[in-house]
Structure formats: C-alpha cells, structure tokens
Amino acid sequence: MNQGWAERDGNGHYWPGQPPSLPPAYYPTPADPLVSPDYEGWWRRGVALARQTWRQVLTVHLIAAVPTTALVLPATLRFNEETAALGLVPGRALPDMTEYLRAALQLVGVSVVASLISAVAVTVSLQLVVLAATGRPVSIPVAFRVGIRRAPAVIGWGLLAGFVYAGAFLACFLPILYVAAALMVLPVIVTLERGSGIGRAFTLFHADLGTSVSRVATMFGLNLAGIIVSAVIGAVGQAVIGGSAATVGAALLNTVAGLVIGILLTPLLVTAYADMRARREPFSTAYLAPTPVEGHR
Prior knowledge:
Blueprint: H1 39-86, H2 98-133, H3 140-171, H4 173-182, H5 186-192, H6 198-207, H7 209-240, H8 243-280
Organism: Actinoplanes sichuanensis
Keywords: Membrane, Transmembrane, Transmembrane helix
Protein name: Glycerophosphoryl diester phosphodiesterase membrane domain-containing protein
C-alpha cells in the first residue's frame, strides 16, 4: 500500500481523494522534511534533522541533566549504602530495615521528580526539531516557550501511560512490547496535537503496521545498544574500581549515553510520527508551521 509516491493518487500523495479545501502545500511531496515514502527516506530525514538540531538538543538535555543528576546520584549512593549495610544472610532474622526503606522511598521520589524534568526537556527538544523541519531558526527560547506549555499534558499522559504499561507487564512479556511500541510516539502526539493521547497513539501505530514497526524497532535497537554499552562499561568499572566511585562513574556514563542517543532519537521520533500520521490521514510538515489551516492542527 505504501511502496512509493507514484503508486498513490498520481500526484505523489499518500492518499487518494484530496479534500479541495486544503492548499497543495498540506500534502507531502518527496521533498517534505518530515514525511517519507519508505524506511530509507525516514532514516535520511531523521539524520538530517539531527545534524541541524544536535547542538540545541544537547544543550537542553545538558541543562536538564544537572538537576536530575544532582537529585538521583546522592539518593542512589545512599540506597546502595543501606543495601550493603543490611547484610542479609539466609536463615537469619531480618535486621532493622527502617533506614533502607527510607533510602528506597527517597530514591523513588527523586526519580519521579527527575522524570518530570526529563519530560520537559523532551518536549522542548521535540519543538526544536519541529522548528528545524518547518524552516524556522532553531531557537531554544522559542522552543521552550512552546514546549513548556505542552509539558504538563506530556507529563499527565505519561503518568496515564504508566498504568497501561503496568497492565501490559502483568499480562505477559509480549503485551508490554506491544504497548511500548505503540506508545513510543505518545510524547510527540501530545506535544503537537492538543487533546490527543493514548488512543491516538494506538490509532497511528495501526494505520500501517509495516511502517510503524520498522521505525519503532530501529529506535528500540538504538536505545538498547546504548543501554548495553553503558551496562558493560559500568560492570567493568564496578569490577575494577568498585564502591561509590564506580557508582558515580556509571551514573555519569549513563547520562552521557542518554545524551548521545537522545540527539538522534528525537528527530527520528518526530519523523516516525509524521510517517505514521501520513499513512492515516492527509498530513505534511506544513501542518506544523506557525499558521496551519484552521481545524487541522
């Protein structure tokens, strides 16, 4: 169904029967910065946007990394110390776990706060990619003004998605993979479409499964590769150095890996959303311009 531009409506559009009320610019062409007809085009567009935005995206995530690291790292160190202090031995009575539980609750609390800060950074980064795709200056202040208004919605829908993840996890391994794949573009949807959320993510994911799965699987693979590399280096550091120094080093390494992967994943996520949406309904980069057609944003 989506093998190429020429096999659609004769004008290079993804769908037949153009509504006459929309200008031609609101239908994708082979030159569209976001929408692509195939996997190669998606990857090429994502890499091109990453080259345009990497400095600004890196800056945003570095700014967010300062408070998140300052919050999570001390809590992690304390949790590790309390875990080691327990000295659990099979067959012996449990020691006093008060401090351990306090450390665990503190780690959970600061992790939630760090996740909220990261959600804001993701929203602003998505806006930076949209600015680049629509030909506007890639400005952090402009992206922040727009992104901060959408951040509460992204956080709220993210919390609701957590319950969906939990239900899928309780069901089995395969459901959690399916839910994770379908909800990968949820931050983009909530950032760019007012009033849309989890249901919209599943709708776009199922519009063309071949397109969706190929994009999502690639992004999963990149993310997993970063996690594996960080874990291996962290394990080596723990074996060679050990103690708090290894924990600090591993945390910093995970932060760096997240920054590197995030620079590429952010534009790939936006272009994946564009491809999914274009398979579902008329859509092009023009919809994301400052003055979109009324009622189609």
